[in-house]
Amino acid sequence: RAKADGRNLARFFDPSMQDAASRRASLEAAMREGLALGQFQLFCQPQFDCRGRLVGAEVLLRWQRDGELVSPAHFIAFAEESGLILPLGEHVLKESCRALARWHRDPTLARLKLAVNVSIHQMRDPDFSGMVAGILDDTAAPAERLCLELTESVFAENMEEITQRMHEIRAQGIYFSLDDFGTGYSSLAYLNRFPLAALKIDRSFVREVGTQPGSAPIVEAIIALGRKLKLEIVAEGVENEDQRNFLVRGGCSSMQGFLLGAPLPMAEFEHVYSAAGIGHA
Ligand code: C2E
Ligand code: MG
Ligand code: MG
Ligand code: MG
C-alpha cells in the first residue's frame, strides 16, 4: 500500500524538490489549503437492496484540485500519516450529517442510510465520540441513518479502546459496518466483540465471482457468516449482471457498484435520487 501511495503522490510534487521532507511539507500545505477552500468534496454512491430498491448511499471523498478530481486512494494514507485525517474526517462527518438533515425533509431521501468511511486514526482520537455527538447536535441529523465504516485495522491494536469508543458512538444511535471484509487482518474470534451492524464484502471478491472458481465459495461463506452473526451483508464493486444475480441468489442484503450507480457529487446525487430534487434543482 505504501508503495502505491508513494507513486501516486509523486505527481503532486515539484520535481525540483528533492528531499522527501519538503515534498511532504508541500503536500500537507496543499491539503490544508484545500480543506480551507472547500476543495474536499463529498460524492455519494447509491446502494440498493436485492429487489433493486434504493436503500442508502456511501460517501466517497474527492479532492477537487486545480480542475482535477483526485481519488482518496491518492491522499487518505498521507492524511493518516500527517494527522490531517482528523480535520479532514471531521469535515466529511459534518457535511454527511448536514446531508442527512436535508434528506430528512425529503419524502424519497428521508428513509436512506448514509455510510461514511472512518479511519482507525479517528477512532483512536479520545475526542472522537464527543466530536460526533457535537455534530449530531449541531446538524440535527437522524443518528440512526448514519453508519460508520471501519476497516479490519480495528483488529490490529488497542481493541479494548476501540471497542469502548464504538460502544459510546453506538449509544448515540449510530451504526457500524466492517469495510473491505476479508482483505485485512481479521480475527473471526473477535468479530462479535464489536457492535457491528453490517459486513461489506470487498470488491476484489465480487470481481472474481464468475471468473475465479475459488471466489464464489468465499463470498457464500462471508454471507453465511454474516447471517449467523445477524449482520447485514453489503457487497461493493458490482459491475455486471452475473455478479448481481449471484449476490441476490446468495442472500446479500444490499449492494453498490458501477452497474447500479456511480458515485456522484452530493448535489447531483440528491437531484437524481430525490423525486422532489430538494433545493438543488
Ligand atoms: P471503499 O470504502 O471500499 O469504497 C469503495 C470504492 O470502490 C470507492 O473508491 C468507489 O468509488 C469504488 N467503486 C464503487 N463501485 C465500484 C465498481 O463497480 N467497480 C470498481 N472498480 N470500483 C467501484 P474510491 O472512491 O476511490 O475510494 C477508495 C477508498 O478510499 C474507499 O474504499 C475508502 O476506504 C477510502 N475513502 C473514501 N472516502 C473516504 C473518507 O471520507 N474517509 C476515509 N477515511 N476514507 C475514505
Ligand atoms: Mg467504504
Ligand atoms: Mg469498501
Ligand atoms: Mg474496498
From TrEMBL:
<protein>
    <submittedName>
        <fullName>EAL domain-containing protein</fullName>
    </submittedName>
</protein>
<feature type="domain" description="EAL">
    <location>
        <begin position="24"/>
        <end position="277"/>
    </location>
</feature>
